[in-house]
Every structure is written in structure tokens, then in C-alpha cells.
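Sequence only, no structure available. Ideas?
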Amino acid sequence: MNIGKVVKEYTALTVATVILDVGIYMFKFPNNFSFGGVSGLAIVLDRMFSLSAGQFNLAINMGLVILGFLFLGRRFGTKTVYVSLLSSVGLSAMEYFFPMSGPLTDQPMLELVFAVVLPSCATALLFNMDASSGGTDIIAMILRKYTSVDIGVGLFIVDLAVCISAFLVFDVKTGLYSFCGLMAKSLVIDGVIENINLCKFFTIITDSPELICDYIHVELNRSATVTPAEGAYTGMKKYVILSVVSRHQAVILRNFIKKEAPGSFIMITNSSEIIGKGFHGFYS
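Reply:
I predicted one. C-alpha cells follow.
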């Protein structure tokens, strides 16, 4: 086991969890934004009963963690347990040390943006590290194991039910804000995940494969695949180079080819699903 890698990984998990809790506690709780998840349910229960939203969040997450161990056993990831416990305890600690009597500002739309963006970015970071914040994700894992229910649809129905309850428990304005948050949440998560993993895929048609491949190997520390080709119009012998680099390296490689091999034909496409050695995926 690489201790340094584990420490780095759990440090990143901790930072993401802190960002998650800040978004929930400082922006979601004070405004009663109930757009799904355990935190949204905790906000609704807070209005109906005497316990605080943080206490409800802690109690529900603890119950779900126990269910995870009972139904999933070893399949229940340690990262998810860590984040779930840390997030729940963190929210309770914030309530104790930094009590809030109301929203930070008098601009609910501004606060909705932060209530959506901060937790969504944190959730995307957690997903990218093969973890989650627990909560309804644990229910999804259990349903995936024991039923054939469409998990995405099931979780959306749960989140929608929590959102609708905001109309009944609070008021129409809070319910509408919560519905907007529910719609925006998944879009932000998907967008952040895609941008985190975004790479540039180069297809280069050239007469100088050695020059370009040497630069990719030595200067960029990446690899490439070369295959011989023939121009359909001219019939001239060409070479096709395939390579994947980071966004920063893409600018460097493009400028090098334009300067050193100006006759080359370059196609650059975005890709966020690179699986292989040196990239996020099974072999990274």
C-alpha cells in the first residue's frame, strides 16, 4: 500500500467534504432550499419537528450507513463511509460552533447559486475519486444490488418528492427555488466531472512522424500510435499519429507542430473518457 497516495487521496476527500458542508450549511440550510438528498429531507423535517437540520442529517446518514453495512457488506466502499460520517459530523459541528439565525444576505437567488454550485462541485470531485457523499447514494447502491429498478429514475423521484414537500411545508417561493436547484444540480455535477477529466485527442496526418513522436515522448512524456496511410487524392504516402494529452499540453503540441511541421494536418477533439495508463481509468 502506498501510504503517500492514501494520505493524498483522503486529504482530497476531506477538502471536498468541507466544501460540500459549507455549501449546505451556509447557503442551503438557512434558506430552506430542499432540492433533494438527505440534506433536503433534513431541512423539511427541521421545520416539522424540534431537532435541527444538522441533527436530522446526522441521524439519517448514520441509519443509511448501518443499512449499507447490513445489505452491501464489503461492497460498501470505505470512502463513502468516510465522507458520509465526516460530512454529517461536520454539519453538526458547524451548527454548534457557528450558529446561523438566518441567510447571509437578502439575495436568495445569489445564495441559491452557491447552494447549488458548492455541493455540486464537491460531489463531482467525490465521484471522480470513486466516492460519494453517502445519503441517497447508499439507497441507490442497495437498490442496484437487489432490484432491477432504474436507479436514476428512482433517485429523481425521491428528490422530487422532497422538493414538492418544500411547497407544502414552507411556501411557494421556497418551493420554486428548491425546484430550480434540483434542475440545476445534475447539470453542474455532469459539467464539472466532464471538465475535470477533459483531455485533447490529436489526429495528426504528417510526413514527419519521427519528429512529432519524439517531441510527444521526450517533452510531453506521453505516448502515441503511428500508422502508415495514403492520401486519397494525391496517392502520396503519409503517416497518421494518434495521441492524447492534457489541455495544457495540447497548446504546446499544437504550436510545436505548426512551427516544426507546418505541412501537417491536425484534428483536435475533446474527450473526457480516457481509460488507460497515465489517465483516469482502470489502469491509471
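The chain has a mean pLDDT of 86.
Hope that gets you unstuck.
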